[in-house]
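Q: Sequence in, structure out?
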Amino acid sequence: MSARVPDPEPHNPSRPHGGVPPGETPPGESSTGSGAGPYRPLTRGWGKGPLVLICLVALACALFFLAYAVMLNM
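A: Exactly. Output:
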C-alpha cells in the first residue's frame, strides 16, 4: 500500500487538482511515428583506401607489441 504524497503547491490556481496544466506536455502519440522514411540498403561498402590504412595500422601495432614482448624476455 502506498502513502499519498501531498501536493507541494496546494493553493496554486493554475493547478487546481495538482496535475500538469493542459498543453504543457506533448501528447504521447506524437512520438510514435517513424519519420525516417523507407529503408534503403547501402549501395557501396568501405573504400579500399581506408580499409588498407586501418589494416596497416593494426599490423604495425601488433608488430610493435610483439617486438616489445621479445625485448622484455632478453
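The longest helix spans residues 48-73.
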